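Usage

Read records sequentially. Each one opens with the input sequence:
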Amino acid sequence: HGVSARVPIPVAVLAHEDMSQEAVVERAEDFEAAEEPWSHPSGATVVVQNVVATVNLRVPIDLKKVALSARNAEYNPKKFAAVIMRIRDPRCTALVFSTGKMVVTGAKSEQQSRQGARKFAAIVKKLGYAPKFSEFKIQNMVATADVGFPIRLEALTYAHAKFSSYEPELFPGLVYRLVNPKTVLLIFVSGRLVITGGKALDQLHTAFDKMYPVICEFKKETRPHPGDQPALPSTDPQPDDLPNPDDIDAGLSASAL
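and closes with the structure output:
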C-alpha cells in the first residue's frame, strides 16, 4: 500500500478536484480505506482486489459534453456507449451512461467505492449538471486467497460434480459454485483461489470458511525429491565380497581327486 506503487496522477484529474485542506484530509482517509486482509484460522488470508458498484445520478447526461469538458474522460461511442472516467484517490474507474447511471469499479473496499462514486458525481456537477447521489449498491466483490498447498482438482470435481466444473484444456482453474452464499470460486492446482460474486465482505469470508475444509480433503501430497532421500544400501555384491578365482580353481581340483 505504499504511495510509491501508485502511478502519477494526471494534471487534468487534479483540475476537477478541490485542493482545500478538507480535500487533503479526505484523500488521506481514502488512502487508508482499503480493506485489511482477513486471516483465516488456518493462516490463509483473503484480500479484496476489486469492488464493483452502481449508482444513479438521476439526471440525463450529454456524454459528448462530458468527454470534451473533462480531460480525464474517454469516449468512443462506436466501441462503448459510456464515458470512461478515472481518478487516483481512491484509484477507481467510472462508466458514465447518458441515462445518469454509473458503474464504479477498481476500488479495494466498499468505503473506497462509495467515496469514488461521490467524487465522480462531484465532477459531473462541476460540468453544469445537478446530479443526485442515489441507489448506491455493491454489485460484486472479488477477492484472492492462498491455502498454501497444492490441490487435486480432478478428484475434487469428481466428488463435487454438482457444484463444480473443470476443463483444463480451456481454463486451468476449477469453477466451484456455492449456493449459500451465492458466490463462485476459481480454484487452481497451486492452492490459489479467486472468490467472486459476493455483495458484501462477510459473504467472501463465509465462502472461504465453507470451502476450506472441502479443499483440505483433496490436498495433494507432495513427494520428496529423490535427492532428499537417504541412499539405501546396495544389494549388489561388492568386489571385496566376491571369492578369489584361485580359490575356486583349487576347490574344483580337490573335489576331482
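Summary fields computed downstream for this record:
- The helical segments are 11-14, 21-31, 63-69, 110-126, 153-159, 201-217, 245-256.
- Confidence is low (pLDDT under 50) at residues 1-33.
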